[in-house]
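// run 5 | inverse folding | seed 20
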């Protein structure tokens, strides 16, 4: 039993007889009788491998966690029998009625570009000088870049030359009552959220009305 299940964990689909030179496929009923409750997860793995190895003909539904599979040939739009979502079988997204796949891709491109820019420029903390992203906070708001000599403020991300301590002590973005230099992780995250909110608003205000609506 343990040896058999260990072999299954390393074998590839389809499963075949272990006898030398046999290569006869193992019947599903035999696998079911040996595996019991472990048989259903095995079927799921078999389906995953089959669909992934036939990507030109088969795809999983576009709805996250939906187990249904649709054929990519034939009708341009299919309705998932499990979650009822209509799927475009050409570009593999929810149906974009009234638009060709090319028109749909062009239409979503500006929105994708805006989203990526917001993530990169507004939601990712970066050194104000070399633009290297940073993630660590050791408790001191006088931050030192690991990539260049820049010392910057953890409250407002201002470039303070090579040492940010003097700026941090008097930073206008620092809430009253805080320590001259040190703070908690919660204070750092709060300052980060406020800063990100201001950056996102400023970025969106620069966009034309049509792009903002998209």
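// decoded
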């Amino acid at each position: 039993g343990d040896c058999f299940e260990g072999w299954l964990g390393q074998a590839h689909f389809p499963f075949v007889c272990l006898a030398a030179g046999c290569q006869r496929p193992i019947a599903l009923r035999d696998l079911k009788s040996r595996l019991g409750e472990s048989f259903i997860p095995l079927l799921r793995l078999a389906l995953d491998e089959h669909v992934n190895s036939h990507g030109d003909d088969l795809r999983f539904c576009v709805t996250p966690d939906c187990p249904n599979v649709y054929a990519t040939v034939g009708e341009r739009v299919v309705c998932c029998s499990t979650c009822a979502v209509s799927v475009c079988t050409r570009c593999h997204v929810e149906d974009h009625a009234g638009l060709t796949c090319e028109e749909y891709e062009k239409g979503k491109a500006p929105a994708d570009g805006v989203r990526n820019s917001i993530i990169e420029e507004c939601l990712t903390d970066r050194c104000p000088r070399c633009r290297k992203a940073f993630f660590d906070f050791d408790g001191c708001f006088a931050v030192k870049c690991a990539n260049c000599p820049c010392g910057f403020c953890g409250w407002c991300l201002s470039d303070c030359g090579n040492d940010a301590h003097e700026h941090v002590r008097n930073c206008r973005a620092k809430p009253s009552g805080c320590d001259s230099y040190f703070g908690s992780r919660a204070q750092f995250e709060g300052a980060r959220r406020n800063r990100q909110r201001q950056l996102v608003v400023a970025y969106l205000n620069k966009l034309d009305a049509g792009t903002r609506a998209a």
